[in-house]
Amino acid sequence: AVNGKLFIHSATPAKNESSKEFRSNAVIDVYRISDGNYLSSFYIPEYKGERLKDFEVRADKIIVLYDNYVAVYSIPFNI
């Protein structure tokens, strides 16, 4: 949890999401901790053919662990 928000790696695609998008990206769902309301989602792409293995959010960055790589991305919007 960061700044009162919970970031969850989604295991199931949304109804409005294509299966191709879901298969080629990790989906991170964001919820407000105080009331459990869903806020938004964003994608973490595959990197050199590898999918996200684990992640950690720090301020406005997300640190992503792949099998053989580590990447740091900016969170794409102010949640």
What is the structure about, briefly put?
This protein is mainly beta and 79 residues long.
Commentary on this structure:
This protein is mainly beta and 79 residues long. Helix content is 8%, strand content 46%. The protein contains one helix and six strands, in the order E-H-E-E-E-E-E. A three-stranded antiparallel sheet has the order 1-2-3. A three-stranded antiparallel sheet has the order 4-5-6, with no helix packed on it. The longest helix has 6 residues, at 19-24. The model has no long low-confidence stretch (mean pLDDT 89).
Please give a handful of descriptors for the protein shown:
79 residues, mainly beta, three-stranded antiparallel sheet
**Terminal Cα span:** 13 Å
- Strand proportion, as a percent range, falls in over 45%
> Can you count the beta strands?
6
Order of helices and strands: EHEEEEE
The largest beta-sheet arranges its strands as 1-2-3
Q: How would you characterize the largest beta sheet?
A: 3 strands, antiparallel
Structural class: mainly beta
Overall shape: globular
How many H/I helices? 1
Q: How large is the radius of gyration?
A: 13 Å
Helix coverage percent of residues? under 10%
- Poorly predicted runs of 5 or more residues: none
Please, what is the average pLDDT? 89
